[in-house]
């Protein structure tokens, strides 16, 4: 099925915090956009030709607009810089419909944990839970209040009574003690965490140590933690079953690069194993999964792999291409 493409107007660009801007997007005729659920993201086609994924932070009850927030990463791959330097109010950008790999599930109680810009999907979740009068708590960690988006919005809303902030440069703030938070939570609570890899790892390790089952721990990375530099990868071959082509993948290239260089039309978006756009069916061989898109069961089945970042543990992979 062809991916939904939407031409969206940029209603405004607002500085939400130091290094963080938000964009409000709507259709030119202001008709409703496709509905989304908390935790969803959209693809944004940027003026420099890159495609990046950004979580929606506004209420899913707000059907006429999408709101995203983008942290400037000077050492990044160019996506955030394009948003900050090239997109202005009044511009038109191409976006996708919403997708959700980080959904809320029904639970007696939800613990929402955000690290830095990881607040974007978490903020949307908190608004949804509050509107439905569901039990939840929000914990927001950031290096500094000046770099934390939406703090005033949260404090001035119904969320304030359920929220706690932790800023590294403020000695008056409480210390973020994840074990205490988890130990004090009601039975059968569900945990949601988004932010930098180190923050997510810290939370997941603490929950696992305390015996939390995997199905009650939900997380979303902004990039695949297993996405190693291509010059560290192993060599392998790709056999394309339908086209009967055979290619060598050297250490310094990804499988996706080899496929694109040889004229194969593979959907490309994040190039980090996050979005799943390039996921390709495997007919034989054992992939080395470096993505964060596939579930544990999908990885175990070895039926699909992401050629943008994953490689092969076997000498050859046979793909359904």
Automatic annotation (TrEMBL):
CDD domains the UniProt entry points to: fer2, PDR_like
GO molecular function, a single term: metal ion binding
A Pfam match: FAD_binding_6
Gene3D superfamilies xref list: 3.10.20.30, Nucleotide-binding domain of ferredoxin-NADP reductase (FNR) module, Translation factors
Cofactor(s) needed for function: [2Fe-2S] cluster
Domain 2Fe-2S ferredoxin-type residue range list: 234-321
Keywords: 2Fe-2S, Flavoprotein, Iron, Iron-sulfur, Metal-binding, Oxidoreductase, Ubiquinone
Domain spans labelled FAD-binding FR-type: 3-105
InterPro entries, A to Z: 2Fe-2S_ferredoxin-like_sf, 2Fe-2S_ferredoxin-type, 2Fe2S_fd_BS, Beta-grasp_dom_sf, Cbr1-like_FAD-bd_dom, FAD-bd_FR_type, FNR_nucleotide-bd, MRET
UniProt keyword annotation of Thylakoid present: no
PANTHER family: CARNITINE MONOOXYGENASE REDUCTASE SUBUNIT, NADH OXIDOREDUCTASE HCR
Protein known as: PDR/VanB family oxidoreductase
């Amino acid at each position: 099925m062809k991916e939904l493409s939407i031409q969206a107007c940029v209603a405004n660009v607002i500085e939400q915090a130091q290094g963080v801007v938000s964009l409000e997007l709507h259709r030119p005729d202001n008709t409703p956009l496709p509905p989304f659920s908390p935790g969803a993201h959209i693809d944004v086609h940027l003026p420099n030709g890159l495609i990046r994924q950004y979580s929606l932070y506004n209420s899913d009850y707000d059907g006429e607009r999408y709101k995203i927030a983008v942290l400037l990463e000077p050492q990044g791959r160019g996506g955030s810089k394009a948003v900050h330097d090239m997109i202005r109010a009044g511009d038109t950008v191409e976006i996708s419909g919403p997708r959700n790999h980080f959904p809320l599930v029904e639970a007696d109680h939800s613990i929402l944990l955000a690290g830095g810009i990881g607040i974007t999907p978490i903020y949307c979740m908190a608004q949804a839970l509050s509107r439905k009068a569901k039990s939840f708590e929000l914990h927001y960690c950031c290096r500094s209040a000046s770099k934390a988006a939406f703090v005033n919005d949260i404090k001035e809303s119904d969320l304030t009574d359920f929220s706690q902030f932790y800023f590294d440069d403020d000695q008056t703030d409480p210390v973020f003690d994840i074990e205490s938070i988890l130990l004090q939570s009601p039975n059968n609570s569900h945990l949601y965490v988004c932010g930098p890899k180190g923050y997510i790892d810290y939370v997941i390790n603490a929950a696992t140590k305390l015996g939390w089952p995997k199905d009650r721990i939900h997380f979303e990375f902004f990039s695949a933690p297993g996405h190693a530099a291509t010059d560290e990868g192993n060599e392998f071959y790709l056999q394309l079953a339908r086209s009967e082509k055979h290619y060598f993948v050297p250490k310094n290239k990804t499988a996706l690069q080899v496929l694109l260089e040889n004229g194969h039309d593979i959907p490309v978006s994040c190039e980090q194993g996050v979005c799943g756009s390039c996921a390709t069916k495997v007919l034989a061989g054992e992939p080395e999964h470096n993505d964060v898109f596939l579930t544990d069961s999908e990885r175990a089945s070895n039926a699909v792999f992401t050629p943008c970042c994953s490689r092969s543990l076997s000498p050859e992979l046979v793909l359904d291409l």
